[in-house]
Amino acid sequence: MGLQGFERRLERLVEGVFAKAFRGGLQPIELGRRLTREMDVQRSNSVRGVLVPNAFRFALSPADHDRFAGFEDALTRELADAAREHARTEGYHFIGPVTVELETDPGLSASMFLLAAEVREGEGGIVGSLVLPDHARVPVGDDPVTIGRLPECDIVLNDTKVSRRHAEVRRDGVAVIVVDLGSTNGTQVNGAGVKEKALNDGDSITLGGTVLRYEAS
Fold first, then answer.
1. Which of 6, 39, 202, 214 is positioned for an S-S bond with 82, CB 3.0–4.6 A?
2. pLDDT (tens digit, 9 = 90+) per residue, 190-208?
3. What is the distance between the alpha carbons of residues 151 and 141, in angstroms, rounded to a whole number?
4. HSE (side-chain half, CA atoms, 13 Å) at 67
């Protein structure tokens, strides 16, 4: 499922100016397949569930890294999303943010690559992130994340249906919960109104006319 979505997004990514980079040599889908396979190989059981690597570093040949340079940020973002989708499908858990890096290894020939993957705990107690409509991410750590129209909120929404201090997302032990702060129009999780609700990976949070997504990574 994760790789299928990755392939579909990749088709859109390589349209136009990027298309020339994919006429031969190393294909990005090969990186995606290796990444998800590494997650499967390195999975381990713990009290938090099945843990898998969340930090990935690809070493590419100079030629392949040059080919990907024009859209490296987009590619690493898509690879990270593929990792999250694979974890969601398989029921895997991360203990920190998903990161993907590309680096050059002069010792590698074209089409060859290496992958180092590790389980890396998030700095500052980060346990997940809120994905905004513009795809920006706001990490959820030890401090509550406030959401509303007031400028002092951590996430400021320009939505007249959102209250000035509408809701907050915070840690509660090992769980992450969303709490409605007495908003006028209420808060919904996956379409159901809530006052307080523990969040699962992939849950959608609706505030007024705005939808955020929680990702436990």
1. 6
2. 999 999 998 888 899 999 9
3. 20
4. 18
